[in-house]
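Just scan my protein:

. . .
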Amino acid sequence: STCSYCKGYGEVESRQGFFAMRTTCPRCNGKGTIIDNPCAKCHGSGLIEQEGQVDIRIPPGIESGTRLRVRSGGEPSPESGDRGDLFCDIVVNEHPIFEREGANLICEVPITFSLAALGGKAEVPTIKGEKLEVDIPAGSQNGDTLRLRKRGLPAVNGRRRGPLLVKLFVEVPKKLTSEYEELLHQLAEIEGANVPEQRESFLKKLKNYVQRVTHPANKQDSD
């Protein structure tokens, strides 16, 4: 029926001195009509709340912070009944093994001291659950990175696939057997007799520094 408060206009007029203001009718909310016997479930709004699930397609390589749009997945309009859109903000959970930088995957693989020194093969996991045998170069240092092409994540909206970056972590044993300790003592003697070039350069710099500190040059008094 016609709203008795605004007489069906949907607006009401109020005056303050010489000024007149028109505002939306507070009773019919601008519709001009009211429902005399509203529905007990929707209270005359024509809408009721329901919980539901919507299936959405997640593209490969998606990153956290991406917003996906589901057309007509939102709430219906009170006037027309047409549904709006549903926006989904994506949060990618952290992986227990891999770190991510865009399409690049980073995996830290522990190796023994002997494997780092002599070289050999090590097993490396992939994001698909496979295990790859990777060649470890002799003389590998802690923190060295091996690059495995096309073993990372796919780029969003592209055919390119990023690499898997294998970061080597040389493990030093905390508990040594007597045999292991004896071998390390032998290795230490060999290392003392054959000092690598980089360490030899450092030792020379250290020796010169100590000499300057302990035996400073005599300073001549200036006239």
